[in-house]
């Protein structure tokens, strides 16, 4: 099966824990999820542009590698986390919400949404006060447990640059 051109394969993903359990309120679980994201990035399975880990859900802005479907990339992330968590309970809701990024403005809007999510949830007053994961910093604050911003050790990846307008993706309907 031929995939869409790579420049239109960036997605905003929302994935929710089963029954909205606050799994990521526990540092160890949030750090494990971040480790899974980093592992998939290191294996070149995806480009991770931005992410946030909230107590009961995650938002990702990512581009799967050219040879990997979005579904497979999410299987690596969600399945890898579930496997390593070793929970006897369901970990994730069965599906996830995906929105294909249409252009640079759409990319920037979703990236801002990710960074503002902790503020809307009253977990921080501004993005700069929302601490990064421990792999970036040793500072510990009460809201560190609830989410993370983009890892500054990861080079900033630019948004996709479509060369011309493209037709809507039929999978989005």
Short recap of the structure:
With 173 residues, the protein is an alpha+beta fold.
Main beta sheet: 4 strands, antiparallel
CATH superfamily descriptor = Transposase IS200-like
Query: Which CATH class is shown?
Result: Alpha Beta
Question: What is the annotated CATH architecture?
Answer: 2-Layer Sandwich
Helix-strand makeup class: alpha+beta
CATH topology: Alpha-Beta Plaits
Let me know the number of strands.
Answer: 4
Radius of gyration: 16 Å
Q: Helical residue percent?
A: 25-40%
| Number of separate helices | 3
pLDDT < 50 stretches: 132-160, 162-173
Mean pLDDT: 77
Series of H and E elements: EHEEHEH
Separation of the first and last Cα atoms: 19 Å
Which term fits the overall shape? globular
Order of adjacent strands in the largest pleated sheet? 2-3-1-4
Strand content: 15-25%
Total individual domains: 1
Structure write-up:
The chain is of the alpha+beta class and about 170 residues long. It has one domain: Alpha-Beta Plaits (2-Layer Sandwich). Helices cover about 30% and strands about 15% of the residues. The chain is built from 3 helices and 4 strands; from the N terminus they run E-H-E-E-H-E-H. A 4-stranded antiparallel sheet has the order 2-3-1-4, with helices on both faces. Strand 2 (about 45-55) and strand 3 (about 55-65) form a beta hairpin. Helix 1 (about 25-40) packs across helix 2 (about 70-85). The longest helix is centred in the middle third of the chain and has 17 residues, at about 105-120. It is globular, with a radius of gyration of 16 Å. It starts with 10 loop residues before the first strand and ends in a 53-residue tail after the last helix. The relative contact order is 0.22.
């Amino acid at each position: 099966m031929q995939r869409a051109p790579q420049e239109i394969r960036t997605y905003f993903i929302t994935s929710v824990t089963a029954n909205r359990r606050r799994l990521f309120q526990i540092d160890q679980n949030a750090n494990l999820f971040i480790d899974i994201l980093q592992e998939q990035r290191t294996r070149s399975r995806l480009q991770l542009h931005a992410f946030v880990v909230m107590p009961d859900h995650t938002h990702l802005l990512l581009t799967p590698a050219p040879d990997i479907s979005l579904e497979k990339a999410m299987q690596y992330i969600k399945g890898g986390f579930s496997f390593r968590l070793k929970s006897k309970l369901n970990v994730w809701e069965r599906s996830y919400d995906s929105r294909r990024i249409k252009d640079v403005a759409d990319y920037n809007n979703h990236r801002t949404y990710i960074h503002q999510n902790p503020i809307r949830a009253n977990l921080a007053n501004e993005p700069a006060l929302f601490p990064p994961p421990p792999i970036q910093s040793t500072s510990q604050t009460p809201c560190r447990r609830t989410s993370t911003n983009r890892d500054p050790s990861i080079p900033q990846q630019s948004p996709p640059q479509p060369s011309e307008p493209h037709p809507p993706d039929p999978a989005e309907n």
